[in-house]
Amino acid sequence: MIYLKSGRELDSxxxxxxxxxxxxxxxxxxxxxxxxxxxIDRHARLEIRxxxxxxxxxxxxxxxxxxxxxxxxxxxxxxxxxxIPGKRELVDGDILKLDFGxxxxxxxxxxxxxxxxxxxxxxxRGLIExxxxxxxxxxDRMCPGNRLGDVGHAVQTLAEGEGYxxxxxxxxxxxxxxxxxxxQLPNFGRPGRGQRLRVGMVLAIExxxxxxxxxxxxxxxxxxxQTADGKRSSHFEHTVAITDDGPExxxxxxxxx
Length: 257
Ligand code: MF3
Ligand code: CO
Description:
By secondary structure, the chain is α+β, with helices and mostly antiparallel strands. It has one domain: Creatine Amidinohydrolase (Alpha-Beta Complex). Helix 1 runs antiparallel to helix 2 and helix 3 packs antiparallel against helix 4. 2-amino-4-trifluoromethylsulfanyl-butyric acid (MF3) binds next to strand 4 and strand 5.
C-alpha cells in the first residue's frame, strides 16, 4: 500500500527535508583532502543533536544486515553507496558520495550528493554532472498522472545517452514515516509502465550511475556496495513530493543544487 501524505504530514516532511538539505550543504564544505570520513560523520551527529533530530540511518538494519553504525554514508570513487565512515582520508581527485537522512516529527528526509574533492579528472566531472542531470530529468517527470516507468526512463535515457550505465541493484523509494516505503522507483524503465504518481506521494529519487558496467558487489562489512569492475560511480538523491503543481523537492536548499 502506498500511503498518501496529508497536507499536515507534508509540512513535517518539508521541515525534515529542509534540515537534511541544510546539513548536507554544510557537510559538503568539509570534504577536503586530508579530512577523514568519520570526521564528516562526527559533524553530522553534532548537527542532528543541535537541531533535536534523529538519524534515519543509525542502527538501520534491513533484512538481517548488521545495524548501520553511522549517521551518513561516505562512499568514495568505486564505492557506489552505503560505505561506512572510518579512518579513510580523502585525497585530491577523489569523488565522495555523501548520503544523509534525518527524522523530524516522525518523518524522514533522505538526500545524497557527489562531491569532487580538490581537482578531479575530466572523466569524473563528466560522470558527476551526468548523474546530477539524470536525477533532474527524472524529477521533471514526477507530475501527478505520470507513471513510475516514465521517471525511470527519463533517468536512464539521460545517463545512457551520455555513455554511462545505470545501477539496477538499488532503486529509489517511497519515504515518510519509514525511510523505505513502497513504491520502489527504479532508475530505468519503460514509458507508460508502472504505477501512476498521485498527489500526496513522496518519493526519494536516487540514480547511481557508473563509468563502466552496472554490476555491483557487496563488501564483507555487509554494507559497502562497490562497482564490480572497480571503475567510478556517482550518486545523487532528493526527496520529492508529488503535488498539484508538479514535483516539489523537499531536500533542496533554495539557491543550491
Ligand atoms: N539513501 C540510502 C538508501 O535509501 C540510505 C541508506 S540507509 C543506511 O538506501 F543505513 F544504509 F545508511
Ligand atoms: Co534513499
